[in-house]
C-alpha cells in the first residue's frame, strides 16, 4: 500500500504530498472541487478544512469505500477563537459515520505545513528535530501503512492508539495553532516527542 491520493492542493495538501513522495509513495493530487472518477491511492488524505469534510465525504463516498481515509482537520472557529464542539467527539469520529466502508485515521493535524514540507521542526536557538506525525485509528494495518511512509520520509511517526484519541489530537492541534497565532512558537516549530 504505497499510493496516496491527496484531496486538497493548499499548503497542507502540498506538504503531505511532498512527504509521501519522499517516503517512496506515488501521489495523485486532486484539487478540492475537481471531479475525479478514480482515486489511484489506497490512502486518501482529506487535506480540506473541517467545514468541507461532509461535502467531500458525500461526493466521493463510492470512491472512498475500501480506502484508508486520513482526516487532517482541526475543527476550529477562527472567528470566535475556539474549538468547535463535535457531537461525535471528534471530526474523525464524525467522518466514520459518513464513510462506514472506509478505514478512517486521524493524522497530520498536529503538524504545520512547513514542518511536513521540510521534514523537521526548527526554532531560533533550539536546533531542529524530525517532524512528528501522530496517528490515531482503529485499523492497525492502515496505521502501519501510513506510519511506514511517514518514517521512510524521515519524519517521526507515532501510533497514539485508537481513533477515540482523535479528540485529544484535535485539542493538541488547536493548542499548537493558538500558540503559533500568538507568536509563541514559529510556524516552522511545534510539538515533538523525545523517545
Topology:
Layout lengths: L2 E5 L3 H12 L3 E5 L12 E4 L6 H12 L3 E4 L4 E2 L4 E2 L7 H8 L4 E5 L5 H6 L1 E4 L3 E4 L1 E6 L2 H13 L3 E6 L4 H16 L14
Parallel strand pairs: 1-2, 1-3, 3-4, 4-7, 10-11
Antiparallel strand pairs: 5-6, 7-10, 8-9
The structural domain count equals: 1
CATH class reads: Alpha Beta
Task: List the helices and strands in order.
Answer: EHEEHEEEHEHEEEHEH
Write the CATH architecture name: 3-Layer(aba) Sandwich
Over the alpha carbons, how many angstroms does the gyration radius reach?
15 Å
**Structural class of the secondary structure composition?**
alpha/beta
Q: Say which CATH homologous superfamily is assigned.
A: NAD(P)-binding Rossmann-like Domain
Shape: globular
User: What percent of residues adopt helix (DSSP H or I)?
Assistant: 25-40%
| Biggest sheet features | 7 strands, mixed
* CATH fold naming: Rossmann fold
Average pLDDT for all residues: 90
Individual helix count: 6
Structural summary, described in words:
The model has no long low-confidence stretch (mean pLDDT 90). This protein has 195 residues and is α/β, with parallel strands linked by helices. The longest helix has 16 residues, at 166-181. The strands form three sheets. It has a seven-stranded mixed β-sheet with strand order 2-1-3-4-7-10-11, sandwiched between helices. It has helices at residues 11-22, 53-64, 91-98, 113-118, 140-152, 166-181; strands spanning 3-7, 26-30, 43-46, 68-71, 76-77, 82-83, 103-107, 120-123, 127-130, 132-137, 156-161. The radius of gyration is 15 Å and the shape is globular. It has one domain (3-181): 3-Layer(aba) Sandwich (Rossmann fold), CATH 3.40.50. The protein has six helices and eleven strands. Keywords: Oxidoreductase. This is NADPH-dependent F420 reductase. Residues 17-75 form the Pyrroline-5-carboxylate reductase catalytic N-terminal domain.
Amino acid at each position: 500500500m504505497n499510493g496516496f491520493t491527496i484531496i486538497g492542493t493548499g499548503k497542507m495538501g502540498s506538504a503531505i504530498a511532498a512527504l509521501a513522495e519522499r517516503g517512496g509513495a506515488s501521489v495523485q493530487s486532486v484539487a478540492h472541487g475537481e471531479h475525479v472518477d478514480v482515486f489511484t491511492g489506497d490512502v486518501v488524505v482529506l487535506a480540506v478544512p473541517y467545514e468541507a469534510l461532509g461535502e467531500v465525504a458525500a461526493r466521493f463516498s463510492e470512491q472512498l469505500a475500501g480506502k484508508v481515509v486520513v482526516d487532517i482537520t482541526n475543527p476550529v472557529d477562527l472567528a470566535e477563537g475556539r474549538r468547535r464542539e463535535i457531537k461525535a467527539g471528534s471530526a474523525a469520529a464524525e467522518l466514520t459515520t459518513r464513510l462506514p466502508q472506509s478505514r478512517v485515521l486521524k493524522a497530520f493535524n498536529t503538524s504545520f505545513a512547513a514542518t511536513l514540507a521540510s521534514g523537521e521542526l526548527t526554532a531560533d536557538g533550539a536546533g531542529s528535530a524530525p517532524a512528528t506525525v501522530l496517528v490515531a485509528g482503529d485499523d492497525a494495518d492502515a496505521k502501519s501503512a501510513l506510519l511506514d511512509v511517514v518514517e521512510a520520509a524521515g519524519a517521526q511517526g507515532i501510533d497514539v492508539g485508537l481513533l477515540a484519541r482523535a479528540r485529544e489530537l484535535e485539542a493538541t492541534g488547536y493548542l499548537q495553532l493558538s500558540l503559533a497565532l500568538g507568536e509563541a512558537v514559529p510556524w516552522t516549530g511545534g510539538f515533538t516527542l523525545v523517545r
